[in-house]
Amino acid sequence: MSSPWNASDADGLTPDGAAWLASAGTHPRSALAHWRERPDAPVVLPCGVVFDVVSAPTVFGRRMLDRMWEEGPGSGPVAEFRGRMLLFAAPGTAQRLPALMEWEEWGAGGADGSRTDGVPPLLCHGPGDAVTVPAAAARSGSRWLVAPDTRHPWLPGPEVLLWAAVRAARSAVRISIFPPADQGANVYDVSRRR
What we know:
two-stranded antiparallel ribbon; alpha+beta
């Protein structure tokens, strides 16, 4: 499966995609009117009913997205906003994903909850949370990588996102069964011995 987001930036929201996003708010018509008046303005929307959001640092989020498109089922809508990748997920993901991550020992690390092996934390936004979504019209620093284009887009669940995160972490950390070579050692080619 080829990735729709690395060939070029998404064009922005379609009317159906904007309607789907606006349906998450308590006043969908107001959000749509706001986007019609100011298509370059981001909007704050609540999570937990229409969608949850998993937020990752941009580079790690792109690795997750690569795994989802190259080896998995693809992704739902994805946005980049202020140095974070926002992966839209099925409602309930924000409650379930942290437990799955704990089971995978994702949270093992420093006293502040950060990992000591360089794997970044994922932030889960669900009921009671809100996220700022990029403007309807794409622009640099805040844009849709995979814009919602239907009134009912497919949204990955917690298992798909956990799988993508684990695969992305494994691809970022190269593990070898061989000890590192001694840089000052003499190396001899024994393949040409007679």
